[in-house]
Amino acid sequence: MVVFPHAKINLGLDILSKRDDGYHNISSVFYPLPFEEILEVLPYDDFHFEASGLAIPGNVDDNLIIKAYKLLQEQYKLPPVHIHLHKLIPMGAGLGGGSADAAFVIKALNSLFDLELSGESMRILAGRMGSDCPFFIKGETVLAEGTGTDFSPIAVDLKGKYLVLICPGVHVSTAEAYSKVKPRIPEKSIREVVENIPISEWRHCLKNDFEASVFPAYPEIETVKRTLYDSGAIYASMSGSGSSVYGIFNEEPANLTLKASWKGVLKG
What we know:
The chain has helices spanning 64-76, 97-112, 119-127, 135-138, 174-179, 190-196, 211-217, 219-230; strands at residues 2-3, 6-18, 24-36, 38-43, 48-53, 81-87, 142-146, 150-153, 162-166, 235-238, 245-249, 262-265. It is an alpha+beta fold. It folds into two domains: 2-152, Ribosomal Protein S5, domain 2 (2-Layer Sandwich); 156-265, Alpha-Beta Plaits (2-Layer Sandwich), CATH 3.30.70.890. The strands form three sheets. Strands 1-4-6-5 form a four-stranded mixed β-sheet, covered by helices on one side. The chain has a four-stranded antiparallel β-sheet with strand order 2-3-7-8, with helices on both faces. The chain is globular and about 55 Å long. Pathway: Isoprenoid biosynthesis; isopentenyl diphosphate biosynthesis via DXP pathway; isopentenyl diphosphate from 1-deoxy-D-xylulose 5-phosphate: step 3/6. Residues 63-139 form the GHMP kinase N-terminal domain.
């Protein structure tokens, strides 16, 4: 079975408060991006995982794909499988690539072995892999609140807009980004902004709170955002805790010199 885990971007990211458990309450629109990698899952004689494409740093046993398989294997006594990931979504970029991989493994195993898990059951399992993972079970645009796992529908219309995604090649630690952030309650909620204010005005009222702590430490990321605006973007922002930055344009920019990791017309 071959599936195609996809990236996501954050439209706004408000860090509202720090919780007693050490996590933060946030508000953000998770928007699916058709920037995909390739994941193959097949029955096999013994468990085997291999990867191609972008190099994946760290201990292989810490990979969320392996953790997701082991979680389902223990609960449902699954037979061994061979998993091959062709990695295309940069890591440490705020795009959720690793989370998407874990979620798509859960979905693939559910189909491959007829586990008949509901969407809600798969979201609960995915939540044990990380806060972004449940989003990728369904992969539809949502307003994410709480720790990023409380989802509600939201009306966002980007159909026909041209998006350019730039990954500057630096890795931003999410823990580091959170350690320097100052929680705040904005004047207008993200829902109010994206549902009621034209995209052309988002620049002034739709913020990613991580930028205030990440840009001073990584000025090259701020430079990318500025360059996107200079090239005609109607809205530009860092995604998640970085380091990727995207620009939304009315049409494909003709004078952009930055190398894009992904670019294309949005379908909705």
